[in-house]
């Protein structure tokens, strides 16, 4: 199907007026419906042809408490709900990260002892190497210190918490706590007034392509690394012996950056995971 040509069409929000369609989105310009246009009452007496009077210009500025966006200033969904700005989405993501980190702290006893013991052993080895004027310093990536194992444990816990948290918040509320604090909500594409219950498919796709897949690749990368103690060297950190997985991890990192930045220039302000999940993020206030 092709998009309708630019022009005046019946306003989806008010059948008594028309709204200008720019070819790819509705604008804020409206006018009285042509079928209800007034007629110049003096035209017939003056011998002129009776013709409809051109409707007065409708200002795009808010009047009498009416919230009307200026053309091009704030993009909206097809049903007129303003889309969230990129910085608002970043702020919401930061708030959610803080919430997930706070919850993850409750699981710290699982790996706390191992982390403290590993740091103590590493510090002692560094001190001994310096005192003995050794040319080789201990490698913090050495699995004997347990730093990588602790990182794996923390990453798995954080991933599980994130998936559960996002799934339930979006499924039953269409917004996480961070998004709620910023006045944002996730909706199906061009359905800004949809009920607060996001479809399961959209929720799962957002989780997979925003967090789960990239985190899983990173975790697998760490697991393979910890099982290959000779594969990492401080002098040659790229000499890991996990083949194509290292390149896959790099690609996953690039995808994550592009995914977040995409909404900054996208016409519908969608990230890549929004496009896959068929969702948009709108402002609720």
Structure description:
This protein is mainly alpha-helical and 285 residues long. The chain has two domains: 1-73, no CATH class; 86-283, no CATH class. Helices cover 43% and strands 11% of the residues. The chain has helices at 86-104, 112-131, 147-173, 177-181, 200-226, 244-262, 272-277, and strands spanning 7-11, 14-21, 26-32, 184-188, 279-283. The strands form two sheets. Strands 1-2-3 form a three-stranded antiparallel sheet, with no helix packed on it. A two-stranded antiparallel ribbon has the order 4-5. Strand 1 and strand 2 (14-21) form a beta hairpin. The radius of gyration is 29 Å and the shape is elongated.
What are the salient characteristics of this protein?
two-stranded antiparallel sheet; 285 residues; 7 helices; mainly alpha; 43% helix; 2 domains; 3-stranded antiparallel beta sheet
Please give the structural blueprint:
Blueprint: E1 7-11, E2 14-21, E3 26-32, H1 86-104, H2 112-131, H3 147-173, H4 177-181, E4 184-188, H5 200-226, H6 244-262, H7 272-277, E5 279-283
Antiparallel strand pairs: 1-2, 2-3, 4-5
Mean pLDDT: 81
The secondary-structure element order is EEEHHHHEHHHE
Strand order of the largest sheet: 1-2-3
Number of helices: 7
Low-confidence stretches: 36-45, 50-71, 234-243
Rg from Cα = 29 Å
Structural class, judged by helices and strands? mainly alpha
User: How much of the polypeptide forms β-strand, as a percent range?
Assistant: 5-15%
Number of E-state strands:
5
Q: Short summary of the structure?
A:
This protein has helices at residues 86-104, 112-131, 147-173, 177-181, 200-226, 244-262, 272-277; strands spanning 7-11, 14-21, 26-32, 184-188, 279-283. The chain is mainly alpha-helical and 285 residues long.
